[in-house]
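Hi all, posting the design record for the shared folder.

TITLE: backbone redesign
STEP: 1 of 1
STRUCTURE INPUT:
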């Protein structure tokens, strides 16, 4: 089984486009993913990109997606270290990278800024990797 970390924009992309993750893969993410995704949905509604009904439908879909959510002490400490080393103002992005380092094979993101941050820190995989049926 291959373990992939996804971030909030990628989670929303998966539910909006109906992408089915292969059962041979496990999705892993920090605990904060659902809160971040919900905030992104609210922002999309406020910007007129989604109706409230659409946003709430996406919320239902992402809460149904099977994910292993992590927020243990070692993950948080690793996120702290990454954020400090990179000079970042928050640990939010570092939490995804920490979980990738500690618990996953690669990070999958549709966010170019996150991909740039992760590039030299953790392995990256393309979105299509989530649907491939290989181990």
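Okay, here is what came back for every position:
SEQUENCE:
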């Amino acid at each position: 089984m291959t373990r992939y970390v996804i971030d909030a924009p990628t989670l929303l992309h998966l539910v909006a486009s109906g992408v089915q993750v292969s059962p041979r893969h496990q999705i892993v993410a920090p605990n904060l993913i659902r809160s971040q995704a919900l905030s992104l949905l609210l922002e999309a509604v406020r910007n007129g990109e989604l109706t409230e009904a659409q946003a709430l439908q996406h919320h239902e879909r992402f809460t149904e997606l099977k994910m292993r959510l992590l927020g243990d002490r070692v993950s948080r400490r690793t996120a702290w270290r990454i954020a400090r080393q990179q000079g970042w103002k928050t640990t939010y992005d570092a939490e995804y990278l920490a979980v990738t380092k500690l618990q996953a094979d690669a990070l999958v993101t549709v966010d170019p800024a996150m991909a740039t941050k992760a590039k030299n820190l953790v392995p990256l995989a393309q979105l299509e990797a989530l649907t491939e049926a290989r181990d």
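COMMENT: The chain has a mean pLDDT of 96.
Let me know if anyone wants the other runs.
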